[in-house]
Amino acid sequence: MRVVITAGGTGGHIYPALAIINKIKERHPDSEFLYIGTHNRMEKDIIPKHGIPFKSIEIYGFNRKNPFKNIKTVRYFLKSLKDIKKYIKEFKPDIVIGVGGYVTGPVVYMAHRLGYKTFIHEQNSSPGKANRFLSKYADTIGVSFKSSIKYFPAYKTIFTGNPCSEEALRAKEVPKRQLDLDDRKKCVLFVMGSLGSSKINDFLVKTMSLFKNKEYQIVFVTGKNYEEELKKHTFPSNVKALPYIENMPGFMKNVDVMVSRAGASTLSEIIALKIPSILIPSPYVPENHQYKNAMDLVNKNAAILLEESELKGDVLVRKIDELFKNPSSLEKMKESLSSLQIKNSATKIVEQIEQLVRG
């Protein structure tokens, strides 16, 4: 199978794309790939490290605060179509797959115009502008949340779940002792995304001292952007602060409670591994989509919501203590998460792709 795949901007788009690539490789070992991404975002560094041929285009997202800047955005969109047409026609794919981010807009659109089969996947509960635009041009649409089906044409929309969930289930387990933690003690994982947020990390750094002498232990993952700032602080002996963990899903298998943003890929891993969580949606994302993602779990009693504006004093310490004091509430949360599980999301997506390729 020959596959052009495009996704960009954040790990929430890039890692589901990699999960789809891995599943295609597993089922079709002779497959060849071309990844088209932006020239200045995360994918330009991540994708080549996985040995996947990469082509970049210069393109920018729409500016909500200054509409006049969108003249430049439209100009680069139109300019990129020429390069994309060249890349696609030279590669001659069996299918073109878009996994989110504004870079997918011109790639999938051009593939449709050239007569190639197209598949797009939406990770968030509330779809981004690119996928709303592409819904007219994609042959099949996969969604991670049932609540987002209503945004797309029903006849070509499939509830697949997020492909990162299947990757999480297959991840090699990382024991607590590998991070110099006590295997016998309960563990709470704080993780604020691949890059991290200065504002919330500043609050969490102050909060960590309040966990001193607790019977449970804390792993506080700040994100790589906070790595230098992290070196300036000291923490209680039961708090382990790190900029990142190499195999995060593998370590999550030994976590009792998680405190996290509500990015779609993280939630798919929380659901797959049935981890009770306190979700703090980022208020700085388009259309407040993390809040909507979180509410998909909260409405089913599968997570606790705490908005960033509520982060004051010892609120997180109290919430975590309440959970550990009530083991039955943790078990009920796990049961609710079980009802949301799709254990073969990547497989379901690739099956849809195979059907499109077969025609």
Description:
The structure is a single chain. The chain is of the alpha/beta class and 359 residues long. The protein has 14 helices and 13 strands. The protein has helices at 11-27, 43-49, 70-91, 104-113, 129-134, 164-170, 198-208, 227-230, 248-252, 264-273, 289-298, 315-325, 327-340, 345-358, and strands at 2-6, 32-38, 54-57, 95-98, 118-122, 140-143, 157-159, 187-191, 217-221, 239-242, 257-260, 277-279, 304-305. The strands form two sheets. It has a seven-stranded parallel sheet with strand order 3-2-1-4-5-6-7, sandwiched between helices. Strands 10-9-8-11-12-13 form a six-stranded parallel sheet, sandwiched between helices. Helix 1 (11-27) packs across helix 14, helix 3 packs across helix 4 and helix 6 packs across helix 10 (264-273). It starts with a strand and ends with a helix. The relative contact order is 0.12. The mean pLDDT is 93.
Concise synopsis of the structure shown:
With 359 residues, the protein is α/β, with parallel strands linked by helices. The chain has helices at residues 11-27, 43-49, 70-91, 104-113, 129-134, 164-170, 198-208, 227-230, 248-252, 264-273, 289-298, 315-325, 327-340, 345-358; strands at 2-6, 32-38, 54-57, 95-98, 118-122, 140-143, 157-159, 187-191, 217-221, 239-242, 257-260, 277-279, 304-305.
Topology, element by element:
Blueprint: E1 2-6, H1 11-27, E2 32-38, H2 43-49, E3 54-57, H3 70-91, E4 95-98, H4 104-113, E5 118-122, H5 129-134, E6 140-143, E7 157-159, H6 164-170, E8 187-191, H7 198-208, E9 217-221, H8 227-230, E10 239-242, H9 248-252, E11 257-260, H10 264-273, E12 277-279, H11 289-298, E13 304-305, H12 315-325, H13 327-340, H14 345-358
Parallel strand pairs: 1-2, 1-4, 2-3, 4-5, 5-6, 6-7, 8-9, 8-11, 9-10, 11-12, 12-13
Helix pairs in contact: 1-14, 3-4, 6-10
